[in-house]
Design a protein that fits this description.
30% helix, 4 strands
């Protein structure tokens, strides 16, 4: 949890995500159920987090690996460690939102599309 919001902002920008306010990133980190990261020479090169209620549900967010460090197994390591953290709570349902083309990556960890055809829905406010 001692991850700098500016470091997270920089990592997310490196993968093309929109910039978020560092104060809001700090709040998100503080309210996360689990946070994992990887560094190389003090530079954050990978990050993932999860939110949840500690009982019934958890959702994985913000799995990101700096482009210069992709294809080295770092994403897999982040997911293994994040799921290990979540497993300590015995939460029966862990969800995530996968970018197009990333389904195969997440299937390796036991994730699948909802067989009943239920799809995620969103409500954004501005």
């Amino acid at each position: 949890r001692d991850i700098s919001p500016l470091d997270v902002q920089d990592l997310c920008a490196s993968v093309g995500w929109s910039r978020r306010d560092p104060a809001l990133i700090a709040k998100a980190l503080a309210n996360s159920l689990a946070v994992v990261s990887a560094r190389e020479n003090e530079i954050i090169v990978g990050f993932a987090r999860a939110t949840g209620d500690y009982v019934f549900n958890a959702t994985i967010w913000d799995v990101a690996v700096r482009p210069s460090h992709q294809k080295r197994g770092l994403g897999r390591l982040l997911m293994v460690e994040l799921l290990k953290d979540l497993d300590q709570y015995s939460i029966p349902l862990v969800t995530l939102y996968a970018d197009p083309g990333t389904d195969g990556f997440y299937k390796r960890f036991g994730f699948s599309t909802d067989p009943s055809g239920v799809r995620g829905m969103f409500r954004e406010t501005e």
